[in-house]
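Appendix B. Chain record.
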Amino acid sequence: MLPRSIVTLFCLVLSLTSLGQTPFKPSPTELKNSYIRANEFQKRAEGAALNLNLKANWFDDGRRLWYRRELPDRSFDFLQVQAQTGKSSPAFDHARLAEALSKHLGRDVKADRLPFAEFSFAADSKSISLKVDGKTLRVSLVDYRIENTVVDMQTGRLWPEVVSAMLGRWPLAPNPGTPVELTTPLLYEDQGQGSPQRPFEVRIQDGQIEIRKSGTVDWKRISKAGSYGRFEWSPDGAKILAFRLLPGDHKPVFLLKSSVPGTTRAVLEQRLYDQPGDKMDMYETFILDPVQESEDKVALDPIMGGGQPWAAPPEARWWQGKAILDFPVRGYQEVKVVEIDVAKGTATSLIDERSPTFLDTTKTMLRLLDNGREMIWRSERSGWSHLYLVNRSTGESKPITSGNWVVRSIEFVDESKRQVWFTANGVDSKQDPYHIHFCRTNLDGSGFVDLTVGDGNHSVQFSPDRAYYVDTYSRVDSAPVHELRRSTDGSLIRVLERANIDLLLKNGVRLPERFVAKGRDGKTDIWGIVVKPSNFDPKRKYPVIENIYAGPHDSFVPKSFRPFLNMNRLAELGFIVVQIDGMGTSNRGKAFHDVCWKNVADAGFPDRILWLQALAKKMPQADIERVGLYGTSAGGQSSTGGVLFHPEFYKVAVSSCGCHDNRIDKQWWNEQWMGYPVGPHYAANSNIDNAARLKGKLMLIV
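Structure tokens predicted for this chain:
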């Protein structure tokens, strides 16, 4: 249900006079009915769309898959598909299985409503295992005989015939059919494999490194520096990499707990909380030798401890016996990748990435190749997020990907074929630039393939050998499509399913509409969505409410299909509700993103206002003389900022849990975008320092 406080304040928008227009003022009956529609909206959407999701279950070494298909009236069946040909058939005889289960369970089982959602094929595909009533049953697909349960799901104990097959001995219990208690594990870890044979044990005691010979009692201190916070062994067990803490301020923040059981008096609570400008935990790097009992400091500047009180230094990745550390330098305008030779006690810079604004450390990507010679590194040095192949010895960096689009993640690296599989958005200039696509290219930059060409936001399920995949894609205004494709070239084998939303639309659910307009520079497309009430009347003018979140760490307008959005319920009260990604948010290239640099209060408002003005020209029912906005957290900051910095446009705001001054909020997030050290620009962006600008209506929720 919609919070009454938010709805009450937004209803003020309805009463604001619009220039040259008669504002829509619902009658008491209309308003009552709109509340009923809003609170029942989710019920209209639930179960009204079929096959929105398709889970691919690969079997037969990835040559086949099965999935559960939803049918009308909450019925369903199971299909299997041959990956190479796309030939589809029932996964089993549903009628025979229903008959067998009815006899076994002692109750009526329907063939189109079998009492399980998942199962697994045996290796020979002649039987399946499934769980019903807490037990796992084995069903022969030859004669549909249900055999003894394999596992008692309530106790988790294995049945004797299975244990005997695993261990090659029988019997383990006096009577077949009796569950067996296993006092020893079936699988053992080889304690020597992949781990050093260490003659010493190590611990940190009172901030010092202590060792003792394995099997002995007494500990011996081998460090002198003190204040050690973390250590780890080198892979060969010869050296210890350790980090010495240089403590920050650890200043407290205070909260008033107003409701304390047993007393009418409030209680003051405090917690440690690093804010922008505070002295942070830093770490020095040391190498200790347990045999020589030596302690040597590595010639490396102290490393910032991650931006939270007592946050640990970066985890080392061991690469051919060397420790690889990647970490940002405070100010977030430099990120380093450093190699530490623990045998020599030296540090070598492998990558030193710098930016005149910020480096988005929330999207750092580093992949160390098994050949020990090369790294894959993500950089925005070209103005776009792309992958580079870095030579470990020479430092030479060559682009793997390029173009006016954004790499979002590294999914898989095939070193034998010299290929990288990754996700990206903006690869198809004819589509919404935020659509996620799955791509592959060679490490030398050749052979680029977009494996997901459909017009929508994509998710992919690969077969175990990555030879085939199920591509699911959709948009907010287009239901999901599930396709089986081959990985060699992305070619289509078969459309498995198309989601059915006929009942959803019949129930009165109105899908969001996409809208694009130019931003402040007159050339950059700004993307957003429009949500109308289900009883939208083209002859009326509706107040507009913007759902805002402008945090620079991501983009936020929904791109995939959903049966309903919370914005639908708000729209039912008689509003047009919109959501927009303005400049300063992520995933559109460095220049688009840099707008937020030392300028979080901008929040893309110049783009948002132009977008809404363009919307009103195309959609005259949108009354942009009556515009409100709401948001939470960074959205709470921005929604308040709307009525402070742009009161000529935004008339009402509801702000929940907002960071109203970036000097108050957490250190790492705010310094990332607002810069370090703290300067006068923090005050210029502050809702608190600019509170006198308020002209409209504002509700603050904490």
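Further analysis of this model is presented in Appendix C.
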